[in-house]
TrEMBL record:
Coiled coil feature spans: none
UniProt name for this protein: Uncharacterized protein
Family statement: Belongs to the isocitrate lyase/PEP mutase superfamily.
SUPFAM superfamilies according to UniProt: Phosphoenolpyruvate/pyruvate domain (SSF51621)
Catalytic activity annotation: (2S,3R)-3-hydroxybutane-1,2,3-tricarboxylate = pyruvate + succinate
UniProt source species: Venustampulla echinocandica
Pfam family for this entry, one: PEP_mutase
Length: 303
């Protein structure tokens, strides 16, 4: 089996491809995306923070929170690369190095590091604080050096949030400097026009550029085809699962509170969300087959 980072590099090496990554944040949403046939997943930091801590994405998630979640998701299918948010690296150069080693050990194929202060905020909120360029580059350098020490691979994605405060040219200059010291992919967060999206891809070519497609965020909406036409090589959808889950559970909570029932109005929909259907979605069939193959009898007659 090809290592996940190697698999991701193979996808990036095909200039005719754009890698589409649905944003997942737990085992169930990851399984749903895997079952749909996506060839790469993205672990959203906001989703991880909300689901594990019940808090907003304001820099409160730790390395342990993120690595444990990433390792669980990556382990569901080692054939499918996982790109994971690594925020600021969770400290100075030593901590960024530790983060790199921990993500490699967790089976993560790629991660992105940003240039916000440690007490960061979601990239589509206002008034982000940015560290000096040398501090940012020390984070990228620490990740590059740690990867070399580990004698193992991980794709390093350099993200900058500097556009809002420093402007386009300075933000792109930071990305060019990060690429020069070993970053593999560039990520300009929060651009506000499609022309800026096209321009960053042109300025940084042939380095692959990632597009963060946040529904309702400051970046204009791109379809996958539009993103590919502009020149992006990776597109992530962090809200892929968060938005639908939020809407559906809010409605279910309202129904239960007002009617005392959470029954589906549609028989087909009810069957699709039955306990057995849910268990099948997260690997019930494979688990039973594994048990039987090992000589177990508990599931020999099904469930």
């Amino acid at each position: 089996m090809m290592a996940s980072a190697k698999q991701l590099r193979a996808l990036l090496a095909d200039p005719s491809k754009i890698i589409v990554c649905p944003g997942v944040y737990d085992g169930l949403t990851a399984r749903i995306a895997l079952n749909a046939g996506f060839e790469c997943l993205y672990m959203t930091g906001a989703g991880t923070t909300m689901s594990r801590l019940g808090m907003p994405d304001l820099g409160v998630a730790t390395l342990n929170d993120m690595r444990e979640n990433a390792g669980m998701i990556a382990g569901l299918n080692r054939k499918i690369p996982l790109i994971a948010d690594a925020d600021t690296g969770y400290g100075g150069a030593l901590m960024v190095g530790r983060t790199t080693h921990q993500y490699i050990q967790a089976g993560v194929a790629a991660f992105h590091l940003e240039d916000q202060v440690v007490n960061k905020r979601c990239g589509h909120l206002r008034n982000k604080e940015i560290v000096d360029e040398e501090v940012y580059l020390s984070r990228i350098r620490a990740a590059v050096n740690a990867r070399a020490e580990a004698d193992a691979d991980i794709v390093i994605i350099a993200r900058t949030d500097a556009l809002q405060s420093l402007g386009f040219d300075s933000a792109v200059s930071r990305l060019k400097a990060a690429i020069a010291i070993g970053a593999d992919v560039a990520f300009l967060e929060g651009f506000t026009s499609k022309e800026e999206g096209r321009k960053v891809c042109q300025e940084l070519a042939p380095t692959p550029v990632l597009l963060n497609m946040v529904a309702g965020g400051v970046t204009p909406a791109f379809t996958v085809q539009e993103a590919q036409d502009v020149g992006f090589r990776i597109i992530i959808f962090p809200g892929f699962a968060l938005g639908p889950v939020f809407k559906s559970v809010v409605l279910a909570a309202k129904q239960l509170k007002e009617t005392g029932s959470v029954e589906e109005s549609d028989a087909k929909a009810e069957a699709e969300s039955s306990p057995k259907a849910l268990f099948m979605a997260v690997g019930l069939k494979e688990a039973m087959e594994f048990d039987v193959a090992a000589g177990g009898t508990m599931y020999a007659n099904g469930v």
